[in-house]
Amino acid sequence: MEPTPRDLVRQTLAFEKPARVPRELWLLPWAAERFPEEAAAIQDAFPNDIVRCESFYRTPLPTEGDRYAAGRHVDEWGCVFENINSGAIGQVKRPIVAEWGDVDAVHIPEERLSVDAEKVDAFCAGTDRFVLAGCCPRPFEQLQFIRGTEGLLIDLIDRPEALTRLIDAMHDLYMRELEVWTRTAVDGIMFMDDWGTQRSMLVAPELCRKIFMPLYADYIDLAHSRGKSIFMHSDGYIVDIIPDLVDLGLDALNSQVSCMGVEALGERFGGKITFWGEPDRQHLLPEGTTEEVRAAVREMKEAFFRDGGLIAQCEFGLAAKPDNVRAFFEAW
Hints:
Layout: H1 5-13, E1 23-27, H2 29-34, H3 36-45, E2 50-52, E3 71-74, E4 80-83, E5 91-92, H4 117-125, E6 130-132, H5 139-147, H6 149-158, H7 161-182, E7 188-192, H8 205-225, E8 229-233, H9 242-248, E9 252-254, H10 262-269, E10 274-276, H11 284-287, H12 290-304, E11 310-316, H13 322-331
Parallel strand pairs: 1-11, 2-6, 7-8, 8-9, 9-10, 10-11
Antiparallel strand pairs: 3-4, 4-5
Helix pairs in contact: 5-6, 7-8, 10-12, 12-13
């Protein structure tokens, strides 16, 4: 019997010799707007094995604007993003907590708990693909949106009491949200935090371990206690904390493997965690040739595939050439 996409992903995560490497295209609105025909053709030829479930909120989130449209967008926490281009997410220019006395401006979005579980379960029953939940805890990033990156990096050293209270409130909400989702029929959940520049981490690894790894441990333990897989995305150079994520039992990691050294990562972590992509989207996809893309696929396969442990994920985003994105999936 032919394995379903859901089977392929589960076999990959368990290192159980999938018939092929499962695939996933992340199509950003920027690419969909500029290359609609090419994007549709890639999706038709190489359909995703992983899909996201809609959140199906009974109570709408108190947001304003479209986060991918030019102009102003307010997220459910009250953070204001300014965007000068369409198709990508803007930036927070003025944090809502400029001083800790402003912390009451933060809205704890309890609306995220109003998921219609029956609709989620119906969605999962209606597809043979591996379904990730429509939620994504991101404590480090959300704190940057709330406080501003510079302010938060100072706070992580000084550790004001208000910061600790906000982290506790945020973590409480995220855990209750994951409680809701892990009781549904989704196959996995996802969280994210971008920890790296292109050369190092944004903070000392010890700070990440002390403050944020306990939060991640709670996410991972809850997911596994309900029989769910758990995925993480983190941009940049994060090799310092990958051993911690492996020890916590993270199933799949999406990261920029090229800036950390594909061969070196494979030697250290191949067979211990699933590498959920991805090809270099700063230089290779915008500037490389299709043969260079195919060579990168061969390099990833050799470094990471251990009877599983590798997902062919690729982001079709800012400046990427459609031919290179297609070549990536063709090579697999």
